Amino acid sequence: CPQNPRVSTVGARLGKTLAVVALFVAHAAAWDLSKYQPRSVLYPRAPSKTTTAKVFPKRAPTVDTRGFCGQVNYASRIVGGTEAVPHSAPWQVAIFIDGQYFCGGSLISNEWVLTAAHCADNAIFFNILLGSHNVRLDAADEPTRVEVRSTEYTVHPDWGPIRIINDVALIRLPNPIEFTPEIQPICMAPSTEGDHVGDILHISGWGKPSDDAAGISPVLREVDVPCISNAECADTYGATITDGNICVDTTGGKGSCNGDSGGPLSFVNNGVHNQVGIVSFGSSAGCEVGLPAGFARVSYFADWISSVTGLVI
């Protein structure tokens, strides 16, 4: 197996300790889900795509959501890889990219969405659904939903698609969004956040519910998983794992899958959700084989996120 594994979603090419990694995007028409598949299937995009990524000027941290972010106004969630209680993750957003791809993301302020770089890189436009639970429904059948289109985003300046490092991007909404009980920001882990090894973390998204599923889930799903050390994760993925990653154990087939890319990994403390990771990659052997899933570690990128968005973290 190669020392620097390339992205692949074909086959189960596993060595003794190193697994080929697969990005968890989905190739997706608003909103005929049969046309949207995990972006990883066709990654990378054709070079004819012209990026509109930009470098935003650095901002002083003046936007403070810490008094109300990460709080759920609905009933307790359902765990174990099943459908989430509607709107129990009001920061979760669905991102339809260029009319072809699907990713997740999280609302972190009234004008910014956090997602993965491999979701945003080289994109032309994003159709973003906020306040949604069933993305298959028409907007008229889901009155809590707000749909916006954005063409402004930035990827981390050190994003490396070969090794999947610094897999972080920010999308700016065209206008500040109005918060509702169904649309709320999630809290961000600060740069001083602990490593969470041994903690139970929470994943949510519309990704494929199984390896055999034909496409992404129409309804938001969620699962709780244990965090493992980067050293243990590196036993599987080698040099792909850096300080900018956080990993979880997916034993039993519980974890993220294709279409979950860009969505949040959170730690719940006294009822408040703090985002500690961004869904990034897993094993090309499949989502249910029990190998670790990798995420971008939010605390590692907190200063960069703050400098772009002006968010106090």
How would you describe this structure to a colleague?
The chain is built from 3 helices and 18 strands. It is mainly β and 313 residues long. It has one domain (1-48, 66-313): Beta Barrel (Thrombin, subunit H). The strands form 2 sheets. Strands 2, 3, 5, 6, 7, 8, 9, 10 and 11 form a 9-stranded mixed sheet that branches. A 6-stranded antiparallel barrel has the order 13-14-15-18-17-16. A hairpin with a 3-residue loop joins strand 5 (92-97) and strand 6. The termini are far apart. The relative contact order is 0.23.
Total number of distinct structural domains: 1
CATH superfamily: Trypsin-like serine proteases
Give the proportion of residues in helices: under 10%
So what's the overall shape?
A: globular
Protein name: Chymotrypsin elastase family member 2A
Keywords: Disulfide bond, Hydrolase, Protease, Serine protease, Signal, Zymogen
Domain Peptidase S1: 78-310
InterPro entries: Peptidase_S1_PA, Peptidase_S1_PA_chymotrypsin, Peptidase_S1A, Trypsin_dom, TRYPSIN_HIS, TRYPSIN_SER
Q: Which short descriptors sum up this protein?
A:
313 residues; mainly beta; 9-stranded mixed beta sheet; disordered N terminus
Summarize, please:
The protein is mainly beta and 313 residues long. It has helices spanning 117-120, 230-237, 298-309; strands spanning 21-23, 26-27, 37-38, 82-83, 92-97, 101-107, 112-115, 126-130, 146-150, 152-155, 169-172, 187-188, 200-205, 221-228, 245-248, 264-269, 272-283, 293-297.
